[in-house]
Amino acid sequence: MAQTIKLLIETSKQDSKKVVEITQGSGDKGSPVRVKAVKNAQYKFEDPANKNRGPANLSTKRVGRNLHVILDGPRAEHHQHRCGCGQ
After folding, report:
1. CB–CB of 50/56 below 8 Å?
2. Rounded to an integer, what distance in angstroms lies between the CA atom of residue 61 and that of residue 67?
3. Checking phi first, is residue 49 left (phi over 0); if not, alpha (psi -120 to 50) or beta?
4. pLDDT digits (tens, 9 = 90+) for 65-80
5. Which DSSP letter does residue 26 get?
6. What would the pLDDT profile of 42-67 be if each residue is shown by its tens digit?
7. Could you tell me which residues come within 8 angstroms of residue 48 by beta carbon, excluding any fewer than 6 positions away?
8. Residue 72, Ramachandran bin (φ over 0: left; ψ between -120 and 50: alpha; else beta)
9. Model-level pTM?
10. Alpha carbons 67 and 41: distance in angstroms, whole number
């Protein structure tokens, strides 16, 4: 069964919390899942299967105005876990 995690996107504005569910391998043809970056946002990854702790195998990378997320495991060209992508 494919792993599913939650990506919580929060900004300083009230009522601006957004939740995106990401399923392992759900990117186009095995590529990363792309999430539009939000200015001045904080990103928090939660794994419901792990008591909402961060997932064990997660890679992220800022590409243009998007955040690329991979659940299949770490890759050398990606940054691990937290990403300040709102600039």
Report:
1. yes
2. 6
3. alpha
4. 999 988 765 443 444 4
5. -
6. 889 998 888 888 887 888 888 999 99
7. 4, 5, 6
8. alpha
9. 0.70
10. 12
10 Å CB burial of residue 33 (0-12, 13-18, 19+) is: buried
State which amino acid sits at residue 55. P
d(C-alpha 17, C-alpha 65), whole Å: 19
DSSP for 43-71, written as a single string? EEEEBGGGTTBPPSS-EEEEETTEEEEE-
**What residue has token string 């064990």?**
56
Give the tokens for residue 85: 């992508």
Residue 37: CB atoms within 10 A of its CB come to: 19
